[in-house]
What we know:
single chain; Beta-galactosidase, Chain A, domain 5; 14-stranded antiparallel beta sheet; globular; disordered N terminus
Amino acid sequence: xxxxxxxxxxxxxxxxxxxxxxxxxxxxxxxxxxxxxxxxxxxxxxxxxxxxxxxxxxxxxxxxxxxxxxxxxxxxxxxxxxxxxxxxxxxxxxxxxxxxxxxxxxxxxxxxxxxxxxxxxxxxxxxxxxxxxxxxxxxxxxxxxxxxxxxxxxxxxxxxxxxxxxxxxxxxxxxxxxxxxxxxxxxxxxxxxxxxxxxxxxxxxxxxxxxxxxxxxxxxxxxxxxxxxxxxxxxxxxxxxxxxxxxxxxxxxxxxxxxxxxxxxxxxxxxxxxxxxxxxxxxxxxxxxxxxxxxxxxxxxxxxxxxxxxxxxxxxxxxxxxxxxxxxxxxxxxxxxxxxxxxxxxxxxxxxxxxxxxxxxxxxxxxxxxxxxxxxxxxxxxxxxxxxxxxxxxxxxxxxxxxxxxxxxxxxxxxxxxxxxxxxxxxxxxxxxxxxxxxxxxxxxxxxxxxxxxxxxxxxxxxxxxxxxxxxxxxxxxxxxxxxxxxxxxxxxxxxxxxxxxxxxxxxxxxxxxxxxxxxxxxxxxxxxxxxxxxxxxxxxxxxxxxxxxxxxxxxxxxxxxxxxxxxxxxxxxxxxxxxxxxxxxxxxxxxxxxxxxxxxxxxxxxxxxxxxxxxxxx
Length: 619
């Protein structure tokens, strides 16, 4: 895929795996291995981009890199979401450090609450000398606007539409055709920093001086403070000591970076419209919070000792979702709790790898997915020791959710994969309704719902009987994706994870065998029968690994885990899917659910190994 930048230089745009995530717990940016920031939504994850070249040639970028040929190595600074990229040239070595600034002085649990919406980039030469090229082409509102530049004492003021940007730094850039650029040489021991801060057109509170925003000590000081802030957060979230600790800790940091700290919402991914099939139309906006991911997210946060974050996430769920409208529970929300996520296309964008349309919003928000009823109650169950005194509104909301599960579990719905081809009796939806009622019964005393327990128990038992009778297909020798169906669906791997049946139950073992046989290419698991060339869903592979571990099949679990984790990029980031033929990352990136799966599977393996060691000691 080729693009031409504003400077007239033709270059290859990065593939998905070439990007690193920068986060400030409110917005997100993606920076490529070649030093180009091709995606930045500065104010909110689900807000308009300022840099969007990821989805269209003319949608904006910020490039910093050597002018001569180079090789690249990069890493996250330990315990942070700050990326350090080393460019190795014949003439010298250049280090580029990129981060989204957190609020000055924020530490520990407080990081992300007061983001200045500032992208900071620092360059330093350690050997020889390097000629550096900088090109800054902001294009607000997903590339619809070419802004104007006004020179200031500190740098440049950039204005277009509702967006204002302040650029400051140690090097003065020239402006031409809506692009600020410059070429300069840094020698060994020399450094330079740039800072780009976003604000709305009505916000005049920004002080654009170099001391507060860019240069030394501004931009570099911001970066140092951000590194310290991330590390302070990481230090209090180090409880996981099991296998694959490094990968788990990176995934926990990704989840924190995908958390909108003002409300506690966790978005599914940092991007929109990265395709599930290259060149296809399955391009969805994932920058919202899904109830479907709720309990899995909370379990991952719990494993990482993110109790405060888990509580805030649950509070976001209950405040966004309840009280229910005529018993209906919406499946997803904006990061601020918005309900209307109506979808539209950005027809001016060509899309990643010509994958169109590019979508903003997601019409799945209005689907009926009964599984979310169980997700809500599983969250409450996980937090049961913290939720000893529930607010009256939360109690009313949870009781209404349980009543809805009891009254509607037998109905058809769209299922966890949000199919747009019509409603069915999906097994996972029935399973999660069972979870809702099972947990509601166990929490009934805290819900002051003794009068409802008999009905909840009765409907729970009916669901269980229906799943065992109509969900099991003896011809396929597996639980299938829908009642009275012969099609497999990897979603049924949730059964042992939700406590419906033990993982070593013969029917669960047979189902895992069938999924490995018919839905898997090696360790890569597709969602369902007849998926065709659709990529393998990474979360499904981790569910399989977790199931094998829970069944005591630790060797198989570790093999699956290590194989699928091997598809992560060099920074340890995972997308939604892996291309089953090419082994490349596809889909929105990085995908929170994939990293949640990694944490959950690693924890299941750790628990299985601990149990095996205990048995060995007893013997």
